[in-house]
Fold this protein.
Amino acid sequence: MNETMEYDFDFDCHTHTKEYSLCGEMTLGELLAQKKTRGPRLVAVTDHSSHFYYPAETLNQWLDKPGVFESRREKGNQKLEEYLDRLAAVRDQGILTGLELDYIIGDGLFFDEKYRRRFDVLIGSVHWLPCMLPFFEKHGGDHSRHCPFDLGEFIHWTGRMLESGIDVLGHPTNLYKWAGLEPDTRTIHWMIDAAKANHVAVEINCAHKDPGEYFIQKWLEKGGKIVCSSDAHSPAQYGEYSHAGKILRGCGVSQANLKEVLFVPRKGGSKSV
Ligand SMILES: [Zn+2]
Ligand SMILES: [Zn+2]
């Protein structure tokens, strides 16, 4: 059977558009055209929260600057409102409002809390650690090289993200991959306990092929909810769920019992903290 057809996930909680994500390669119109012919029923657009606020020309210079959010708040919020209006206009086509949240090192989220209830889903992803700043300085976001990794920092920032009121933890162990490492089981179990304690769902991210089967197996044993996503940045990546299919098959989840483990987005707003 075709892997991508074996499961109907009903909801893709993680996609990007080029209007609002600097790394996006598809317009909202292109995404809608894909959705119309290929489904699923619901798709959340989740552009990067930091991309609404930081000055693009200084990409790697603001990650550890606590004042940067304040200085960009007003302009960024204007952009965010424009984004929410555009998504609201296509809500009847099954488009939900989302964001992939980033944080500022030494500070909080790249997010104005007053907008929380206007989102159906907030994903939180750890895209960087303090130890990676010199790497960014030299190589930018080059994924063909191994980035530095510090376990204490990873635990600290993943914990902060999990406690921040997010609905879904995005590509939970992807930084390990970028560093050329495998997550150890002790850290995986710590992440599972922390996600459970904060009522956060875990993403099976098909673009990054993350996390692996062990993580999801243990997470499902704890009764955790999952969400399967494409993290599509381009029309070519749209609707690609083979990694999730492989993991779920390995964990003994079939289409018949998929509903029991899937995270369901709250209509009309993300959960409050
Ligand atoms: Zn991400
Ligand atoms: Zn993403």
User: Anything to note?
Assistant: The longest helix spans residues 68-88. DSSP finds eleven helices and seven strands in the chain. The radius of gyration is 18 Å. The longest strand covers residues 42-48.
